[in-house]
Specification:
- This is DUF3081 domain-containing protein.
- It is globular, with a radius of gyration of 12 Å.
- It contains 2 helices and 6 strands, in the order H-E-E-E-E-E-E-H.
- A 6-stranded antiparallel β-sheet has the order 1-2-3-4-5-6.
- The protein has one domain (7-67).
- The chain is 36% helix and 28% strand.
Length: 85
Amino acid sequence: MKNDLDLHMLLRVFEKVREHGKETEDGHQLEGIKAASDFDGYTVFLSDVQCHLTLFFHNKYECDYPSEKAREDFEKRLKYIDKNY
């Protein structure tokens, strides 16, 4: 994934999933997006069934995805949550 995602938007989505989503065994889930963090909260994770995004402490992120279509769908879900919650 190119460095074209807004890091502030990613953090907003993380908080919105935690606030509005259903609590699960390993985090929270909303609109097909899971949000979790490591034990100290400095690294956060956003994922769906195909993509996994890790947002690190120093405003860097890495995203694993199987195809460009999967990445686009994941990004649309993130933006939907940001806009509608």
